[in-house]
Amino acid sequence: MNIFEDRAPSPPRPTPLRVAVLGCTGSIGRQALDVARQHPERVEVTALSVYGSTAELVALAREFRPSAVAVADRSYGDDGVLDGLPSGCGLFLGDEGVMELASLNDVDCVLVAVVGEAGIHAAHAALAARKVLACANKEALVAAGDLLMPMAEPGRLIPVDSEHSAIYQCLVGGRERELRRIWLTCSGGPFLGRTRESLASVTPEEALGHPTWAMGPKITVDSATLMNKGLEVIEAHHLFDVPVDAVEVLVHPQSKIHSMVEFADGSTVAQLGPSDMRIPIQYAFSYPHRWDAPCEPVDWRTAGELTFGAPDTETFRCLALALQAGRVGGTLPCAMNAANEVANQAFRDGRLGFLAIAEVVSAVMDATVPEPVESLAQVAEVDARARAKAAQAVSRLSC
Q: Does the pLDDT of residue 105 top 80, yes or no?
C-alpha cells in the first residue's frame, strides 16, 4: 500500500487549514510557524506542543492563540510560566497530551515535527483520527511503517522531508505503477570525501557543521554519519511501496535537486529548488495547490555546476546498516533506529567516538531477532530493549 493508492478521492482542504504543530520549537516547527505567519489567511495554528520549552510555548501561544497546547515532559507541568497562557487555552501534559492534540475537533492537519521515537504515537493518533498527517518524523515510518501505512488514506499523509516531498511531487505527474527507481539525493554531509581513518577523531562540533541545511542536532549528526539517508531510504520504501533496493542514494553536494524518480521508459523527473525546509512544509499545508514562495527561488543562471556521485558505504557504515535493516524488515529497523538514537546522543555528549556510532548500531542489530510488526506496544518493547542493549554497547566502547 502506498500514499497514491486510488481507494478514494483526496479529502478537500478547508480554508484556513487548522494546524497542530507538534514540536513547535524545533527546527521544522519554527519554520512551519514562519509559513503560518506568511499565510495567515490560509493557515490557522490551533494547537502547539513542546517537550519542555515552556517559556517559548507561552510566547507562541500568545502570538497564535491556539485552543490547546501540550508539554510532553510532565516535570514541567507545574512551571509557573504556564500561568501566562492565554485565557481559554487548554493545557495537556505528557506524551498522552501530545497525542490528544492530534485528535482535537478544531485540528485538520497535524505536523509531527518531534524528533525520534516520540513521533510514532503522535503520527498514529493523527491517522487514527483521520487528520491530514504532515510527517516530518522519519522514525515513525522506519519503526512502524507496517502499521501506519495501512491507515493512510489518499491525501491524508503528506511527507515533509525535502527528499520525500520531492518524490511525492514528481509522482503527482506520473503513475506510481510506472516507477522504476527513486534517486534519493544526499548532500554527503560535512565529511564528504574523508577517509575512515580521518574520521576517528572528529568532534561533535565538526559533525554539527552541515554545509547546506540548517537542522536540529540529532538529524545533523545523522547526516554526518549518513544514517539519515538510510532512514530516508526505509521511509521511501514505505511511502511509495517500492523495494529498498529500488531506492538509490545519490550524493549531490549542492542540495539543489531534492530527489528524482525514474520511470519505466527511462524518463527521469526531478524536483529542484532552494535548500529551505519551508518549501516542503508549505507544500504539505497547501497540497494539491501551491502558494507564493516562502523564500527566494534559485537563479539557475548563476547556480553553478551540479555534481553527483555514489555514497561511500564502507567509510560511512551507518548507511549500509540501515539498508540491511530495511531489506530484512519487520522489527529490525525499529531496533536499528533506537540504537542509533542512543549512539547519536552519546557522541554528542562526548561519550562515544564518531566511528563507534556504527559499532553500537551493528551490535544491537546482531542481537535482535526480527519479528513481523504487529502493534505499537510491540514497537515500544523492541525500542526499549534496543536502547538498553545500545547503552551497554556505549559503555563498552566509551571514549
A: yes
